Amino acid sequence: MLTYVGIYFSEAEAKNIHSSLSSFLSHKNSVDEGKPERANFIALQIYGKIGLMGTLLSVKLHQNIKKVIVALILLSIFIVVLNFTDFSRNINDFFFLISSPIQKSFWQAGKSVSDFATGILKTSTIKKEIEGLRFENQELLGQIAVLTELKRENEILREALGLGLEKESELMLVRIISKDISQDSILVNKGEKDGVSKGLAVITGQKVLLGRVGSVYDRFSEVVLISNKESSFGARIPEREIDGIIKGEGGFNLSFVLIPREKEILENDTVVTSVLGGVYPEGLLVGQIKTIKKSDVDPFQSAEIKPAFNVNNLDYLFIIKND
Amino acid sequence: MIKRIIFFVLIFYILTLLQTSFLVHFNVFGIVPNFVLIAVIFINLFGSSDREKVFSAVIGGFYLDVFSLNNRGEFFGFYTLILLGLFLFSKIILEKYVRFPTIKKI
Fold it and tell me: I need a labelling partner for A14 at 20 to 30 A (CA). Which of A69, A97, A222, A260 fits?
């Protein structure tokens, strides 16, 4: 019985059990010796002690169950209160505030160590990449020359038609503090008190789209990356005028879906945001097409996208305040 | 026990900060192992008392709740409940189906 209920007895209780067992033996001897009165008296004692032990045991069990139930009720109340009030936000904000200096140092240290390790492990790949980038740089320089000429022409035409330049978006500089444990979201160091609100677009210094503001705390905000499974928005390949939808796949992966089958897309085509859906401002860089998936039975084709951002190399970001 | 709780509070805090800020840079295909979860599982498997296991689950779960940015509709307390469930599950499994071979002094 003792093993079954799994309760340990105190020293006093153990002595009690021991004396009961001794009495039981003497009871047996008394019966053997033909002294029924003495035997009855001892038997009464034994039953009394066993009854007392049983009561103690049931009280202990009852107390344990009671404790568990009370703990569960308290925990449930605590969780309900936290979720139906703003208190959980305050807890988050407090922990982010006290942890942000340590997290900033950890982020910097992680970045340095990762850069160092990457440098050693990927020397040959980096060499190839440098060659590729040099070639790309030459091409881009040529394009810049053409675009500068077009820009000048555009300005002259605008002046002639009396059109004003578009108002530049107001940007807010923010710093990355941490990344979410399980999802594609990051934490930045500006919040409601700094004028951040839910849904604002977040970009890097190179106008690469990173995501949008999710939960906003007093001094911190969560940025839901475009690779988050919850994220989807309209995008296009400007060179070919093909529209589609970018969907987050988690783990920094993106896919470009709902591209009509008859349209031709190629690897390394650049994808930018479109006005469709109105989630993000138009023309922000999303990434490049990595692999194309085409099926005979599917009316649409899809593609895997290589995101243009790499969270590991980022420190500062910009929130577009009036997009 | 209080010493053990303070130890859990500190070690889980450091693990969570490392996981969210330092180890992010060393992900494999975008995945960073959840060290708090691993630590709680280890304590639940090899810990000595039930109190220790429950406290590790509650403290670990609380930190995971605080530092996970709940945009997927998860409520605050989600990880705490998951880890408490893990404690109960491991307790039932260990008590009913697992026997560790030990040498007893006669």
Answer: A69
Taking CA B49 as the corner, what is the angle to CA B47 and CA B55, rounded to the nearest 5 degrees? Answer: 85
Q: Which of A78, A110, A215 lies nearest to residue B25, judging by beta carbons?
A: A110
- Segment A8-60, tens digit of pLDDT: 455 666 566 666 666 655 655 555 566 656 656 555 565 566 566 556 555 55
The pLDDT, as a whole number, for residue A120 is 81
Contacts of A181 in chain B (CB under 8 A): 16, 19-20, 32, 34, 36, 64, 67-68
Asked if B78 and B32 touch (Cβ cutoff 8 Å), the reply is no
Cα distance between residue A238 and residue A106, in whole Å: 39
Asked if residue A165 has pLDDT above 70, the reply is no
CA distance readout (Å), A120 to A25, A116, A311, B26, B32: 80, 6, 20, 14, 21
Name the phi and psi angles at A316, rounded to 5: -115, 145
Decide if A306 contacts A287 (C-beta within 8 A).
yes
Residues of B in contact with A229 (CB under 8 A): 72
Nearest chain A CA: its distance from B100 CA (Å):
17
Q: Tokens at residue A248, please?
A: 């987050």
> What is the C-alpha separation between A50 and A54, in angstroms, rounded?
6
Percent of chain A having pLDDT more than 70? 77
Instruction: Supply the pLDDT for residue A28.
Output: 55
- Chain B residues within 8 A of A102 when measuring between CB atoms: 17, 21
The pLDDT of residue A20 is 61
Of the candidates B26, B31, B69, which has its C-beta nearest A180's C-beta?
B69
Q: How far is CA A257 from CA A269, A276, A302, B11, in A?
A: 14, 14, 4, 44
The candidate with the shortest Cα–Cα distance to A259, out of A289, A219, A217, A215, is A289
> Any idea what the Cα angle at residue B83 is, between residues B2 and A67, rounded to 5°?
60
Residue at A71: amino acid letter: A
